[in-house]
Automatic annotation (TrEMBL):
GO molecular function, one term: unfolded protein binding
Cellular localization per UniProt: Endoplasmic reticulum membrane
Presence of the UniProt keyword Transport in the record: yes
Gene field: CHS7
Name of the molecule in the record: Chitin synthase export chaperone
Family: Belongs to the CHS7 family.
Alphabetical list of Pfam families matching this protein: Chs7 (PF12271)
């Protein structure tokens, strides 16, 4: 194959040098446009600049100084170690940038906020809402009304104490009906 020859590895050069460079430039430009056009805060630009600097330093360390580093440290490590370290810092800056432009603080909401992902959808509302006719929310299974998709508030609609023989809202099925 022409692109994979030993003399001129053009396909490998495109895959390992040119394509990551194009992707990085497109990402950086698109994020700068996003910050300048839609955000009022300009602090995320610093995250983009630091991430870009770490990415550029990583490329220079790998392709320009790898042999020099390897010879200076007596072949214990080479430029690939520092390249990986700088790429890690670059990816961490992408995360820091994302964290700075989002409003929800989902990182620290494990125990402090009870309903971070609360569903506010009228389709999950009670069956008696006037917006939805009965045939949209009722079930014909065993002739009973439909159970809530999520069990209602704390599961009380679907798993309430058995007020009648055979269950509540169709669960569990009553005797002789299944």
């Amino acid at each position: 194959m022409a692109g994979f020859s030993y003399d001129k590895p053009i396909a490998l050069w495109i895959m390992y040098i040119l394509w990551p460079l194009i992707c990085a430039v497109v990402y950086i430009v698109s994020q700068l446009v996003l910050v300048f056009r839609t955000l009022e805060d300009r602090w995320p630009i610093g995250d983009i600049v630091f991430g870009t600097a770490f990415f550029a330093i990583a490329q220079v360390l790998l392709f320009a100084f790898s042999v020099t580093i390897c010879d200076a440290i007596k072949h214990y490590i080479d430029g690939l170690f520092f390249f990986t370290l700088c790429m890690l810092l670059s990816v961490m800056m992408v995360y820091k940038y994302w964290d700075s432009i989002t409003k929800e603080d989902l990182e620290f909401s494990v125990g402090s906020k009870a309903a971070v992902w609360e569903v506010k959808d009228p389709l999950l509302a009670n069956a008696g809402t006037p917006d939805y006719p009965e045939e949209d929310t009722a079930s014909n299974y065993h002739g009973g009304p439909a159970a809530s998709l999520v069990g209602g508030v704390s599961g009380q609609q679907l798993y309430a104490p058995q007020a009648q023989k055979g269950g509540y809202r169709g669960y569990p099925p009553s005797d002789g009906r299944y």
